[in-house]
Amino acid sequence: MGISFEVLQKDIAGRIGRLRVGEKTVKTPALLPVVNPHLPIITPREMQEMGVEAIITNAYIFSKSADFRERALSEGLHSVLGFDGVIMTDSGSFQLMVYGEVEITNLQTLGFQKAIGSDIIVPLDIPTTPDADRERAEQELAITLGRIREARAFLGPDAQLAGPVQGALFPELRQYAGSAVQEIGFDFCPIGAVVPLMENYRYKDLVDVVLAAKRGLSPSTCVHLFGAGHPAMFALGVAMGCDIFDSAAYALFAKDGRYLTTYGSLKVEELSELPCPCAVCRNHTADELKRSPDRERLLALHNLYVTLAEIARIRQAITDGTLWELLDTRCRSHPRLLEAYREFLRHTGELERNDNVSKRRFFYQGSESCMRTEVVHYQRTLDRVSLGGRVLVTLTGSSPGGYDDVLFFKPPFGPYPQGLSETFPIGQSEIPYWDDDMVRTGCRGIARLAESHPESAITVLCPAEWTAFVRNELPEIEVLDEHAV
To answer: Which amino acids does the record list as binding Zn(2+) (predicted)?
Structure first.
């Protein structure tokens, strides 16, 4: 039956999609909770009742388990776990990353995953760690690609296989890996070996790794960000073009007494209130949760509720065309996320090409908003504006007359003709009092207009308080003070 992916809606590089795995479907973006059969703090059946359509478990653990190996082979994975949705199985690569070796070969794990009825089978790729040098990264990537080709030949062209993308911290290797996996023939590609980056808050490096891999992959490929499980970073992951996340964080954080939120994690012992509308938090006080004999399970339930709710919130933001606003808010919850957000904004030139031309709104939320795709796109299209010989760009809203064309000004976009005043983004943008960053970006729009219309003489009319600033930004354009006209 194979795997296929259909994009239904998009915003930035984020997508709402439909992942088809055989006869089953998963709505994306989606979270795949990690299930350990030996420690089922929340059962897969309970997860399904919470709206989970797919889970991930570890085939290597099953293969080495005295309790579950034979049951999985005889009854099948879905029966053992009590879950009839999509089950993805990791090959043992996580153990390989943690322990350096595993007692299984690529063909052995592929055969075992098929025998137990896995819906998405993963080859035994080599998860090259971020500290690896170029030579090691190239060698291990070659092994990974060899195993992916081996998996495709062993299981056949219609097998429901994942094609992992490796390459450590080398963007060109990640891009090459994406292209190579794509050529072999995959519609589902996990980006691997990124857990150490997230554990050490190296989100800026994560941005470079993911965007490089995406350059090599087809836009129609479903992208899985392996091991990304904290809700605070989901908006960034989706905005980069990741569709699937998997997480054991809901359980691991609960075991450590941590309470997940969309802006970080809190120690439950320090809570006096439970600031969440989930069933756990509305049926318990903070003191009751701390003292409960089921505290770990209750925390895990809360953590999973919060995580699933954030995925739903992101899908709604894509539908509304407001993923930028959500991303901006989430990335201000931690300095390292803000650093990653600014790195992401450096790539808006390439992101703009695939973003929607029109959206519901544009909320200015600070200097970072000046680099959004909507601003880049608007200024790139200024060369389409038809102009006469003498043109006034008025920042005051008034015009002294004597010009062939009068354009108005709205930062951070720049100049616009009256006919665009009700269209996106000019008419649907909410801009507070002007600041230096937005006016500077708007002036770049004026400069772009002048460069694309060399036959037009452009004059800018400024409010007195902005005249000196605009003259400094536009030294080659005539800038008039409103009081001098």
So the answer is: 276, 278, 281
Q: What pLDDT is attached to residue 99?
A: 56
Tell whether residue 278 is among the known ligand binding residues.
Answer: yes
Helices then strands, counting H and E runs in the chain, come out as 21, 19
User: Would you say 222 is a known binding-site residue?
Assistant: no
418-423 contact pairs (CB < 8 A, 24+): 423/358
Bond prior to 157 in cis (omega within 30° of 0): no
User: Is 205 annotated as catalytic?
Assistant: no
Weakly modelled stretches of the chain, pLDDT under 50? none
Distance CA 180, CA 185 (A): 9
Predicted confidence at residue 353, as pLDDT, reads 86
Among 11, 67, 84, 90, the active-site one is 90
The model's pLDDT over 321-372, given as tens digits with 9 standing for 90+, comes to: 999 999 999 999 999 999 999 999 999 999 998 899 999 899 999 999 999 9
Has 370 been labeled as part of a binding site? no
- CA-based end-to-end distance of the chain: 73
Say if residues 35 and 88 touch (Cβ distance below 8 Å). Answer: no
**Secondary structure, 3-state, 374-417:** HHHHHHHCHHHCCCCCEEEEECCCCCCCCCCEEEEEECCCEEEC
Alpha carbon distances (Å) from 66 to 38, 61, 69: 11, 10, 6
| Residue 276 assigned ligand-binding role | yes
Per-residue confidence (pLDDT) for residue 65, from 0 to 100: 87
Backbone angles phi, psi at 146, to 5 degrees: -65, -40
Which residue bears the tokens 């809190």? 266
Beta-carbon count within 10 A of 483 CB: 9
Q: Write down the pLDDT at residue 98.
A: 60
Instruction: Select from 24, 23, 26, 104 the least CA-distant residue to 61.
Output: 104
Which residue, chain included where needed, has tokens 């070969």? 105
Domains of the chain in start order, with CATH, are: 3-348 (3.20.20.105), 357-481 (3.40.50)
Q: Can you give the pLDDT at residue 460?
A: 97
What tokens appear for 322 in the block?
């407001």
Q: What is the pLDDT of residues 92-117, one digit of tens each?
A: 776 666 656 677 899 999 999 999 99
What SS3 string covers 282-318?
HCCCHHHHHHCCCHHHHHHHHHHHHHHHHHHHHHHHH
Angle in degrees, CA 394, 462, 485, rounded to 5:
90
- The token pair at 131 is 């500290």
Phi/psi at 59 (nearest 5 deg)? -65, -30
- Close Cβ partners of 315 (under 8 Å, ≥ 6 residues apart): 16, 27, 29
Walk across the sheet containing 244-247 and list its strands.
120-121, 86-90, 54-58, 30-35, 244-247, 222-225, 188-191
